[in-house]
């Protein structure tokens, strides 16, 4: 079964509540309409109800009327959610007036609805920048227990017959958020990537933290960082199958893994690759995508207390539809039945 078939079945079986703060945006409305028609999630749209329903009508979308609509101009809505934002940010010196203004911003209002436990995740970014989408999530949804660093993973859907990964999938992280992670942050990226592999790719993770050195073949402070990250990650999640420092060939190719790291349980069979910096992760995922003809799905934002995913501003209705399904699957967790 293809990945999205599996994710669609899981979303249908355990429908989650997903907020779409860009509620009047046509591509978002088309995706929402399809999600509702297929029963894959309960949709909460943020925006002016009259405008949303008029736009849906204009686009011939017959299911949008079933979505819950939250109007950010409704003062009763602001009265309800602004105190939550004020509590979260009062240590930063904001006033209640500032909190009310920020709450009226749909990106923040959506996150506050999630924070209040009235939704399970958010998808935005069709008309907002990555920084704005993520900042709202960092400030309101905040990080998962034991995690302080949010990062972004890609699911690399490999061509038929490719010998790497599991079920035709490799996970790459971080490719989107943390420019220069410390050893502690790198360890968190690795642990979160393991969870992403379980939740969205439905695979048992075997995580390799990559370097230009395999098991001491090179000496450098950047190699030391990867060794330290590996130790921290083991302490954070002793059950997770993980090893480092490994070069990419030692991580993926059984004969090279056997030669360079014979004691490793991961070398030669990694299905989750963790990069030592964002420069490496972002460049590698784009090269693999373009040179290898590999479909890159993501970034899947990982490490938040509840999922909030960012769209490319060029996203199609199909991309938004798939991101909603992925977000629902993150909210469901690792039930791969
Ligand atoms: N995890 C958790 N919290 C974070 C993180 C993180 N990775 N980064 C910032 N925060 C928190 C901060 O602690 C701070 O919280 P506070 O206000 O409660 O103190 C808040 O978020 C804002 O922090 P800033 O340092 O001001 O972060 P900023 O808003 O400048 O940046 C951003 C956040 C935009 C995500 C930044 O990390 C960034 O630009 N990353 C690179 C994104 C990028 O350009 N990626 C490549 C393109 S994406 C692609 O190709 C797929």
Folded structure, characterized:
It is a single chain. This protein has 337 residues and is α/β, with parallel strands linked by helices. It folds into 2 domains: 3-142 and 305-332, Rossmann fold; 151-296, Isocitrate/Isopropylmalate dehydrogenase-like (Rossmann fold, 3-Layer(aba) Sandwich), CATH 3.40.50.10750. The chain is built from 13 helices and 11 strands. The strands form 2 sheets. Strands 8-7-9-6-5-10 form a 6-stranded mixed β-sheet, with helices on both faces. α2 links the parallel β1 and β2. 51% of the residues are buried. The mean pLDDT is 96. The structure holds acetyl coenzyme *A. Residues 130-131, 134-135, 138-139, 143, 149-150, 175-179, 282, 299 line the site of acetyl coenzyme *A.
CATH architecture of the largest domain: 3-Layer(aba) Sandwich
Biggest β-sheet: count, sense, barrel?
6 strands, mixed
Shape, per Cα inertia axes: globular
Mean pLDDT: 96
How many distinct domains? Answer: 2
Beta-strand residue fraction? 15-25%
Task: Give the termini distance in whole angstroms.
Answer: 13 Å
Report the CATH topology name of the largest domain.
Rossmann fold
């Amino acid at each position: 079964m293809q990945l999205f078939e599996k994710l669609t079945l899981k979303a249908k079986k355990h429908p989650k509540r997903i907020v779409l703060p860009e509620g009047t945006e046509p591509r978002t409305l088309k995706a929402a309409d399809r999600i509702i028609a297929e029963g894959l999630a309960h949709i909460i749209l943020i925006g002016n109800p009259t405008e949303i329903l008029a736009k849906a009508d204009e686009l011939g979308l017959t299911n949008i009327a079933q979505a819950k609509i939250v109007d950010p101009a409704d003062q009763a809505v602001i009265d309800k959610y602004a105190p939550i934002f004020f509590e979260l940010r009062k240590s930063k010196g904001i006033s209640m007036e500032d909190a009310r203004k920020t709450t009226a911003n749909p990106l923040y209002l959506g996150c506050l609805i999630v924070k209040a436990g009235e939704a399970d995740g958010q998808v935005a970014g069709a008309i907002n920048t990555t920084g704005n989408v993520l900042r709202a999530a960092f400030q309101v949804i905040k990080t998962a227990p034991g995690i302080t660093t949010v990062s972004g993973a890609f699911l690399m859907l490999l061509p038929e017959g490719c010998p790497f990964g599991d079920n035709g999938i490799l996970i790459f992280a971080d490719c989107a958020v943390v420019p220069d992670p410390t050893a502690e942050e790198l360890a968190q990226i690795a642990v979160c990537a393991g969870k992403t592999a379980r939740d969205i790719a439905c695979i048992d993770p075997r995580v390799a933290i990559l370097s230009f050195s395999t098991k001491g073949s090179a000496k450098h402070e950047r190699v030391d960082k990867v060794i330290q990250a590996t130790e921290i990650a083991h302490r954070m999640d002793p059950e997770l199958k993980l090893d480092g420092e490994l070069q990419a060939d030692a991580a993926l190719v059984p004969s090279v893994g056997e030669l360079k790291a014979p004691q490793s349980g991961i070398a030669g069979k990694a299905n989750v690759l963790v990069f030592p910096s964002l420069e490496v992760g972002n460049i590698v995922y784009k090269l693999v995508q373009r040179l290898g003809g590999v479909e890159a799905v993501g970034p899947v934002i990982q490490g938040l207390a509840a999922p909030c995913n960012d769209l490319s501003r060029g996203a199609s209705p199909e991309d938004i539809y798939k991101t909603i399904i992925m977000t629902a699957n993150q909210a469901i967790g690792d039930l791969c039945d």
